[in-house]
Amino acid sequence: IGISHSAIDAIRNVQFGGPIGRLRHDLENTLHSLTEDFKRLSGIPCRGRKTIKIDYPASFKPTSMDEGVDALRKALVANKGKKLVFAHSQGAQVCSRWLRNYAHLPDAPPADELSFLFIGNPLRKYGGYIIGKPEVSIGYKILGVATPNDTKYLVTDITMQYDGWSDWPGDKANPIAKWNARLGQNQRHCYGYLTA
């Protein structure tokens, strides 16, 4: 998770083809290349801006999520002005939990000072693999709930087709779609976003 100050305008200037938040690519490039749409993001959210890394365990440790939410909360309080929180994978889960727990509080940052950009979000409303499953590890008591879309904040949630953590197939009876998604949990999710 990181905060990039004043990156909002840069994000708005990125033009994506096709439906927002849904990146398309040719089947033959599934495991080996990024889409032209995604390449256009090419580091723009953080380039030339002050960035702050939010340190937390980012692991399967049962307290990882809670520690991440607390670290994010402290970073948002300590850093005044316009902020973009940029998060991948479990970082997006941490931000989703912050949005559920803190976004509606009276001391939450104003909407014009804070927005979020997620990539590979396992709690993505459409296709998030962790929704309804333990958020961190087997035996963890908190089940994943989709990233809220009813807060005052702009949340941009980008996934890559076949990223099995953020783009799990809707047709759970289709073995080929599930196989592609399982491959994508390792290939697309871990390596597909490296140029973001």
Structure notes:
It contains five helices and six strands, in the order E-H-E-H-E-H-E-H-E-E-H. The protein is an alpha/beta fold. The chain has a six-stranded mixed sheet, covered by helices on one side. Strand 4 (83-88), helix 4 (90-102) and strand 5 form a beta-alpha-beta unit. Helix 3 packs across helix 4 (90-102). The longest helix is centred in the C-terminal third of the chain and has 17 residues, at 175-191. The two termini are 13 Å apart. Residues 4-38 have low confidence and may be disordered.
Major β-sheet profile: 6 strands, mixed
Class per helix and strand makeup:
alpha/beta
- % residues in beta strands: 5-15%
Helix content range: 25-40%
Low-confidence stretches: 4-38
Report the strand count. 6
Give the CA-CA distance, first to last residue: 13 Å
The SSE order reads EHEHEHEHEEH
Strand order of the largest sheet: 2-6-5-4-1-3
Q: Tally the helices.
A: 5
Average pLDDT metric: 77
Gyration radius (Cα, Å) is 16 Å
